[in-house]
Structures are given as C-alpha cells and as structure tokens.
Amino acid sequence: TLSGVTLLGLPAEVYLYGMQYSMMTVSLIFVGIASNYIYLPVFYKLQLTTAFDYIELRFDKRVKRIASVFYTVASLLFLPVIIYAPSLAFNQVTGFDLHIIAPIMSLICVFYTAIGGLKAVVWTDTLQFSVTLCTLAFVLVLGTKSVGGLAAVLERSKLGDRLEFFNMNPDPTVRNTFWAVVLGNIALWIAFIGIDPAGVQRFLAVPSLMDARKCLVIFIVFTIITKFISCFSGLIMYTKYFDCDPLTAGFMKKADQILPYYVLEVAAAVPGLSGLFVAGLFSTALSTLSTCLNALSGIVYKDFVAPFMPRDTSDEKASTLMKIITVVLGLISVLLIFVVERLGTILELMLSLRGITTGPILGIFTMGMLFPVANRKGALCGAIGSVLLMSLIIVQNQIYVWNGIIRNTPKPLDTSGCNITTSTQSVLFNYTTTTLPSTNTIPPSCPSEEPFWLYRISFHYYFLLGALVTMIIGLPISLITRSKEDLFVNPDLLSPFVNRFLRRSAETTRCESVEKELQFIGINKNRAGSKDAAMDKLLH
C-alpha cells in the first residue's frame, strides 16, 4: 500500500487536479468483494507455487509462458519508476544530482536482494515500513497545524476548486472523472491484489481461507486509509501555497517534487524531519524494488531458464543463476531511469507503463475463472491482440506527451503572493502557460490537429481496457475453435459462484430432458399413476 508512487504521486495529483482521485477509495471496496468471491477462493484451493501456474492448469504452457513474458516486461518497466520517485525527492531536498543518486540506490538494493534473497527482503520490509509510517504521521500532523487547521484546509481548497469528488463527465479523454477513477482503479487494484504473484502468495501463507479473507479485509481498510491520507496531504500543500505556487514560480522542475519541497519548508523548525522524510521514501522504494526483483528473478528462472537446464541441476547452481538474473534485471532498471524522467508524472507513468501488459494478464485470469467456454486459443489470441493494441495506444500517447502535443491542464495555480520581481513573474507566467509540469521542459509545438481520441484516453482506463479487449477477442475465438477437449473444465479452476450457476443449469437441463423423454414414450398419469412417479421410476 505504501510506495514512492503513493507518497509523492498522489499528493502531487491532488495538488494539481483536485480530490477527484481520492474516489479510488470507493474502488477498493469493490476490489475487496471481487477478490474475495472470484479470485482468492480459486488460488487458495489450488495452493499453487505461483499464481501463473493457474494459467498452465486452465489453458496450457504456451499461454502461461506468454503471460510470464508480459509480467516480466511490465515489471521491468515499473522498476525504474520505483527508484525514480525517491531520487526525485532527494534531489529536491539536497540538490544532489538525480542521475547519480538513482543508480547508487538501485545498485545497493540489487546487492542486498541478490545476496540475502527473500529473507533479506522480509527483514528490511519490517524496518522500512515502520520508518514510512512515521513519515506519514509527521507530514499529516505538522502539515495541518502549519496551515491553520482543518477548517483552513477545506476553505482554501474549496476556493481553489480542489474539492471535486463527483465529476460525472462520461468523456473518456478527460483525465480525472468519477467514472475514470472508480472503474479504472477497480481493474488496477484487482490486478495488484487479486492476481499478482507477490500479492497472492501473501494471502496463501495463512492457515485457512477464512484467515485469508480477514487479511484481505485488513489490507483493503489500511490501503483506503493510506491513500486518503496521501490525497489529503495534497490539499494541505495547496493550502500552504495557495497564493504562491512553487511550481509556477520555478522553484522546482517537476510536479512530483512538491511534497519534498513542502516538507523541507515545514521541517525547518524540526531538526531531522526532512532526513526522516527522505529515509521513508527510500525505505518504501527499496522495499518495493527488492520484492519485485526477488519475485521477478524467480519467474524468469522458472519459466525461461529452468526448462533448458539439466534435470540434475543443483540447488546451489540454481541459486547462483537467480542472483545473476537479479543483477541483470537491476542494471536494466537503472538504465531505464534516464528514460522515465522525460515522461509524465509518477502516477501517470506507473499506470501507463504497466497498463501495456498487466491489463491483458488480468483478462486471461478473469476469462479462465468466469467463463468455462474460454480455451487456450482464445486466451492466447486475446492476450496478444490486447497487448498490441495497448502498446499502440500508450506508446503513441507518450510520444505525444514527450513532444508536448498532449498536455494536461491543471486547476488554477496562483503566484500573486510570491516574493519575486514583476519581470521575473511575467516571464515565469508566460513559460508555464506553454509548458506544463507534467511534461518535459521543451516548449511544445502547436499541432495542426488534435490526436485521435483513443490516444488521448485517460490513463486510468488502461488496465480496464486491456482486460476487456483480451476478453472481447478471446471469448468469440474460444467459441469458434472449441473442441471436445474444451467441454470439460475442472471445477476447481472456476470461481465458486460460477460452479453454483453451472450446477443449477445442469440440474434444470437434466429435468427438462427427462420430461421430454417421458412425453416421448407416452407415460401419463393413467398408465404410471402420476407423472412424478414415472419420473422417479425412470430416474432410478
């Protein structure tokens, strides 16, 4: 629930675009229900080593392998964003070069993950989580006090149009609407909680399904609290800089630096607070990065290396190979850091880069658990088609963002209260009206025409769209290519409520066929006493 995306991305999103994003807490309620009744019971009953083993059981090895490739690509694209977030904060607080601190911290994390493995990850997670909670508490309490209390926060936020919760605009190209945030985050969090290998394994580690469901409820509740606190921090910062926006005034380069800039100012009277804040950010980043590297190296080894290894490969050799894989993956993530800094905000980056492949993976799992008709050909074609379409949409969108053609206009920002000269203020104002903080710093050229609407669709929809396209393509192909082998599906591979529905349908069909047979052989009440008695005799 805690990461650099949460601690930096959410406050910046609310600061620029208002509290509409906080409605993702509504999504989490539906996510808890869906995970509880659709995905978790299946995984818990099967007790698989990894969630992707389900795909092999439900379809075949080819579909599992393609899903593993998608997951590997999604994770590789996500890793640089993880370490980029705290490095950006460190740069704002200390002035230390981003291009130096990011590789250093990445290599440190790669080292202790490769040497210590899962045990090191568990111990560091415990310490880092504690530091991060302290950071959140300090930012919330001191922040609210520094701006004059809760009433002042709500009053200024209302004046600045930040208290927006129910923008019901159905236009899918609008960045933040109620529909985009709620529907998009349902798919996003089901992918993170319901089917992600790391998330699934945590729930399978408890003694019973009931305990797993309790853990799920606790996780959802704490996630809602954490996300809402992060969003509220954005309102506190807007209240603090109500008439002197440091972004417009040129005191920072990226919108995601607003929280560390704010903490640095508030922490002036509290020695060590800014250091605690940066430590908390790096703690969450290193925790997430080490967990992802550990899980990813295991998947790469099992699905892409182990099949080509001799059967008598020793555990020691396998462990060495996994460490090498961890180092290689870490180095790739370091190189990609220099690319992600030129793109959008942290939150948008995370959803865009993972949206290419994670949505199709969600579609594969959902097809398998909810639709008995789905087969391996449908799943394979649906997933590949979805990835190709999502790659086209997202890559083209990021090209437009890079070139400044697609720009997201934030809510009003004011610099009238800043202590800067009139000439400087005029220059800065002209600059920010042509170049927005969520894009790069190169003044964009004016496009001759607006890009196609699909390239402008809100990034909140990426996960949902990827999953839907997989099923829209996959289910018809499954029906067309269905064979006798596909007629029987192991009930354990389907969600419990789907099995209940199938049993009712089977019973109804059986009774109807019996009635037709009775009519055909001419049994009636006079000859057999009653239709019910005849039916009982036939059934016996």
Low-confidence stretches: 117-122, 422-447
Class from helix and strand fractions: mainly alpha
Order of helices and strands: HHHHHHHHHHHHHHHHHHH
The overall average pLDDT, rounded, is 79
Tell me the number of strands.
0
Any idea what the radius of gyration is?
Answer: 27 Å
**Total DSSP helices:** 19
Q: Which term fits the overall shape?
A: globular
Characterize the biggest β-sheet.
none
Distance between the termini: 57 Å
**Helical content (DSSP H or I, runs of 4+):** over 70%
Oligomer: single chain
Strand coverage percent: under 5%
Give an account of the 3D structure.
With 540 residues, the protein is mainly alpha-helical. Helices cover 71% and strands 0% of the residues. The protein has 19 helices and no strands. The protein has helices at residues 4-17, 24-46, 53-58, 61-94, 98-146, 150-159, 178-195, 197-204, 209-240, 258-266, 273-305, 315-340, 346-370, 376-402, 422-434, 462-480, 496-520, 525-528, 531-539. Helix 1 crosses helix 4 and helix 4 (61-94) runs antiparallel to helix 13 (346-370). The termini are far apart. Mean pLDDT is 79; it is low at 117-122 and 422-447.
